[in-house]
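User: I'm putting together a small comparison set for a docking exercise, and I want a reference complex before I start. The sequence is below, and the ligand is magnesium ion. Could you produce the 3D structure with the ligand included, as structure tokens?
Assistant: Of course. I'll restate your input first, then give the structure tokens for the complex.
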Amino acid sequence: MSKRYYNHKRQRDEDGDAPGRTRHPPGLKGKDIGLFYARRSQARKQRKETLGTVCLSDSKEKEIRRLFYGKSLENLNLTDGNSYTHIEDSIFKRSYLSSIRGNITEKLCEAPIDMLRVPHLDEQLKNEFDKKCKDSKYISMFKFREKLPSYSMREALLKVIEENQVVVISGETGCGKTTQVAQFILDDYLMKGKGSMCKIICTQPRRISAISVAERVADERAEKLGVSVGYQIRLEKKLPRDHGSIVYCTTGVVLKQMESDPALSQVSHIIIDEIHERSVPSDFLITLLREIIKRRTDLKVILMSATLNSEAFSKYYNNCPHLNIPGFTFPVEEYFLEDVLQMTKFKFNQIGPQNGNRFYWKKKQDNKDPAHIEFKEYIVPYARQLKSEGQYDVQVCEQLKDIDSEKINLDLIFDLVVHICESRKEDGALLVFLTGYAEISNLYKKLETSKKFPTSKYVIFPLHSQMSTVDQRQIFLPAPTGKRKIIISTNIAETSVTIDDVVFVIDCGKIKMTHFDVDSNTEKLEPLWVSVANADQRRGRAGRVKPGVCFHMYSRARHMIIEKYQKPEIIRVRLDSTILQAKILQLGKIEEFFPKLMDPPDSKAIQLSLDLLQRLNALDDNENLTPLGYHLAKLPVAPQVGKMILFGAIFSCLNPVLAIAASLDFKDAFQIPLGKEKQADMKKREISDGLNSDHWLLYKALETYETEGNTQRFCYEYFLSSFTLSQLKKMKDQFMTYLMDLNFVSSLNPRDPPLNRNSRNASLIKAVICAGLFPNVAVLRLDQRGRARTIRSIDGEQRYKFHPGSVLSGYNTCVFESPLIVYYKKLKSSSDFIHDATMVHPLPIIFFGDQFSHKLTPDGHCISISKFLTFKTTEGTYRVIKELRDRMNWFLEHKITHPGFVNWNEPSNEMNVLTAIMELITSEDLGDIDNEDDDDDDCY
Ligand code: ADP
Ligand code: MG
């Protein structure tokens, strides 16, 4: 790098405009003084509107021109409306056109209506089943099944399903909905000699439950997985036979299948489980099925939920029958925070008002935050009342008045676990609900290292979706005699996983949730209060085998004011992927489909996502999928991540880009224990190659894991989760199968050398990241040493910080050569954070950005992107960029409508254009970026 962008303050002096706040030259008089200041202010204003000068050297310009000069621009005026006559006939063209022109109603009409009966199979399946009923393992399992509350409802359930197309079934968690209902149906078909007509899909909200339930059901049927029971989740499947079988799968898997077969023509029954969770895919599927059953009149739809709000679903389906399985649970004693504080004599370890620090107290009181106001209004008076009643220690009541008493406190939970284990001698497992991985692992470590929970007396399990499936099975086994089982879990143990022998429950009172704030266009991930429904579910876990006890870590007053139900996810998240999914399913105009949802999202949220999809060129102005949008909808990732993957394939730097895409889509693999942040930060910097890019770091982490001999040591040393890394590796392979389907690659190996010709070119990879993530751009204001002073995203006025986990954070360590960054996620948690970022140079932004425009000002040529980002340039540079952008558009449309592998080995027009683009977007040492450290810094 020959120049540092932040070093160009001096440049201004050449315009006769001194930096800083100098006075006019001494020789000036009268009007000239006024003119001097007017000119200076004008120049300053103009400067503030630009982000500097971008200028290619003559030789570079020539080199780039030579590469693409005279190269084919046939079909440049490509899109003629929506007819795509310029695209040759191909499989792609046919499926693309059918996807933008068709609609789901027509597609459903074309689908075969009835499942075909296979008589000889019916006979065979019946005989097999009769034989199975005599199997000793089957019989012993059946004895257990008979005792479940759902068994007594078997006949009634079968009858109502037989007589109705749609049925809602509710029942206490553990009564046997998930494992039994599908088996009742299947067995009935088998016994009646209609087995070939039965194919049941049962959707689960989580991967972990799809597998564990399928395993359980196969066990109950004295079979291995893959005979009459199987599962399918995103990266794994074990499918059963085609006829007479049950598949447990995630909701996303069914939606994907419906892209090619919306009528679900091979399915006889679809059971949507855990609908009360109101996840986006399940809400979406429920709405979609309302359309589908009109055509597939033989398809049975069974909606299953815990006993929460199930009436609402029946109402949504035109008051369809609703059957409740009466369950039996033992009474559960309930305790609240005040009781816990009283029992444990716990003292919050902080300077609260009870310790006389008035300043601290005042600071908290001053807060205008609605949460504080609510606390003052409801909880503080309750604590006062408790004090006056004298039932609790004064110390307890005083502590309740401190708002921090409502935060999750692992020390208090630890003390409570100790208290329960010491004071309650009876048998029974203890289940602790916490919000996330970090808390679960911290409490787990605390218990393990405390010496109070020796392995001779306790077995402790963390239960989290990131745990490997082998560990999970042990959780269901009863603890060995004389030992107590302690399970520390997320809300997964609330409804989808049932552990029978739980007698004690600790409910931390919170659930971590993402919430999309349309006004700031930011996602927030925060622990929120549970709803009454969650709290009841958690309590219910304690009364499965005998009377139990539940400890809620919040006061009775808080319990009175928490919401009845959690808000459905669809009104809490970004809708980009959901809209693309609706488009590929051919559901028509978004504004017509979305209002059909049970709880339609805010129209502003819909608009934000439509705008983004249009900016990504995934949708055209008429809301039709573009060829690019079509591919993006086929990739199982967020559209921006998908775009990055396609560009990675086109520019032959696939392996690193897939690693980055997988990490953005799933999660980054770093797992940093509390208190180790600094060490982890150093380790991150060590492998991030000083590129000011979190995305590059994500690649390096996975790459080193994949190529390192001793992965365990590497993971341990660099605070990485080997489980997550192994998932990411699998995801890369899965992306390859999608790219292969789309015909963008000719091999399934992400490391195939022809797909990675440019994988060592970090500048190119950063440019590809930029191509994918645009318009997520933020502008840094740098000080003279190139350190970030403020960060402002281009879509609003708000200022951000780098998340402390980002390698770009750290005031003293990060020096930026360019004030531009691209990012994937903005998150509001304790502050407004840019979660992950890559510093990019101006050319990738100018090249891949939208709303490219050019203006000739008295000062020279200017290019602007997205209206906000303006760069000075020369005429020559402007022309090269403009022409190459046109060629890139031609190339992209060509490539995307003729998906195929780019052959870099033989000279071709395609390769020349790509090489020219690469030359341009990786030219980093050109031009100057103005980034004056002014007092009045509000120019973007
Ligand atoms: P529901 O869906 O109504 O909550 P399930 O069908 O999941 O209930 O579970 C019914 C019963 O089956 C549970 O109460 C539990 O006793 C038992 N069970 C479920 N899954 C397992 C498993 N993986 N291992 C052992 N027992 C299980
Ligand atoms: Mg269930």
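The longest helix spans residues 875-897. Confidence is low (pLDDT under 50) at residues 1-20, 75-81, 351-362, 926-940.
User: Thanks, that's exactly what I needed.
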